[in-house]
Specification:
mainly alpha; globular; Na+/H+ antiporter like fold
């Protein structure tokens, strides 16, 4: 196996470990939390899978962006929650039920929604190429559904082992992701630099800001839920985005660099929102146990 193959394997293993670690922390009912709340599910899918893609199409048509950037932004807007996001959400918000439930729901519905939305909005090439449901299912099953279910199963049948494995899976998965991303950044940096200019950074910043505002507005009356949906709407699964792009626009070789640039810029742009919500939720938990999100969800 060459270096590129090792990097891809390392990214996959890190994502599996991170999601397995999440499953080890997931208590009964959290994985299906959103599915049992139709109104919350409808608002979540409206924000992530309908309004965000439509707004991003309008955005890329309004700017004279390079084709890889335009494709990357639309593909990301169509993608579900990334495997590394729930851990970040749980550090900011105590809304564990919504965090896990949205993670599962977004991945599950992506199998149907991504091909359907692509067909409706015409994100296809002349030959009619489009990403298949089977391709999306393979990605979400490998990086979300199977490792999460495995973690939940271990927690259910061996809670002591789950408690022991949780910090190991989370820390090793996070460290491995950082390690494998270093050579990716180094190798992709010349391509990333070539994408800068012509409003690229402004468009990516707009992508993140629009996602945060949209998710925050549609998250409902609970402050914790608004935080979770805002971060989920602004941050998407890179592997699904790349699958969409490669299936529909195979000639665009710089799309992976554009996706990586969007993830980096998005992380920086969302940092002030994360800090604000962390302070807000920390202040809210001091108002009394009856107002605690953990009390409300469990």
């Amino acid at each position: 196996m060459d270096l590129a193959g090792l990097i891809r394997l390392g990214i996959l293993v890190s994502m599996v470990l991170l999601v397995f670690g999440l499953g080890l922390r997931c208590v009964a009912g959290e994985a299906t939390y959103v599915l049992r709340r139709p109104a919350l599910l409808a608002r979540s899918l409206l924000a992530m899978s309908v309004l965000m893609p439509l707004l991003m199409i309008g955005l890329v048509l309004s700017f004279d962006l390079k084709p890889p950037v335009r494709i990357a932004l639309v593909a990301l807007a169509l993608s579900p929650v990334p495997p590394f996001l729930p851990g970040k959400q749980l550090r900011v918000s105590a809304s564990a039920g919504y965090t896990f439930g949205l993670f599962v729901a977004a991945a599950s519905f992506a199998v149907v929604l991504v091909p359907a939305v692509m067909t409706l909005i015409g994100v296809r090439v002349a030959g009619g190429l489009h990403v298949s449901a089977a391709k999306i299912l393979t990605i979400v099953a490998t990086t979300v559904l199977v490792p999460l279910a495995a973690g939940i199963l271990v927690r259910r049948i061996a809670p002591g082992m789950a408690k022991f494995l949780t910090p190991f899976a989370t820390k090793v998965g996070g460290l491995l992701l950082v390690i494998v991303m270093i050579p990716v950044l180094v190798s992709q940096w010349p391509s990333i630099r070539s994408l800068l200019g012509d409003g690229t950074l402004l468009a990516i910043i707009a992508f993140t800001v629009v996602g945060l505002i949209l998710g925050h507005a549609l998250g409902g009356p609970e402050p914790e839920d608004r935080t979770v949906l805002a971060l989920a709407t602004a941050s998407r699964h890179p592997a699904v985005a790349l699958a969409i792009a490669s299936a529909s626009f195979p000639e665009q070789k710089l799309v992976p660099s554009a996706v990586l640039l969007a993830l980096l810029v998005g992380t920086i742009v969302s940092a002030p929102y994360v800090a604000w919500r962390r302070r807000a939720h920390a202040a809210g938990t001091t108002s009394g146990p009856g107002n605690s999100p953990a009390h409300r969800h469990h």
